[in-house]
Fold this sequence. Notes:
Layout: E1 3-4, E2 7-8, E3 42-43, E4 47-51, E5 54-58, H1 62-65, E6 71-78, E7 83-94, E8 99-102, E9 116-119, H2 125-146, E10 148-156, E11 162-170, H3 177-186
Amino acid sequence: MSFKPGKLNFKGDKPKKSKKRKEQHDDDDDDIVVPDHSSDPIPGEGKLTTSGVVVMGTETDFKGAVEPGDQLLVTISDRFRNTETVEQRVVNMVLGKTSLNLVAPFSCDVTSPTSFLILKRAPDIEALKAAKQAERKKQRQLEEEESTVTYKVVKQGSGTWKTWETVTERVGAGTSREDMLRRRESEKADRFCK
């Protein structure tokens, strides 16, 4: 008789085939749940002290390492109760390399310089998508501007008055910037290219 934890097998028994469960696949990718903060804390550079919601750093670079929405993990020592607890607070705003504000204060002020950890906030996927779309739109506009040439033409007005009219033409894909400048110059009505 062989022994496997949780199951009793007798000599001569054939192993039973396991039944495969049908997995249900959701085609909805919109229901992706992204955690608010990363699960791996990053060690902070330097040390900090606190007074209420104000955090002061020593040899820190809060401006480069911390963003609003990130969390700070600090070991709080309460000398009156003789306890140590690890607390985390959300950063409200970063004021500089050595100072920042928290949304809420720690249970006790940190009076001696203490090491800290940083929990980075998860990126906002919708904002990233919107930024990417804006970048694509800007790129399309730049490509469109590169495929047009603009110049001014003198238009006869009434009497001795003349007016300038701006003309914009589309050019071929192989047209260089020099060719566009020559086109503007050939019109002889551009004030800057005569």
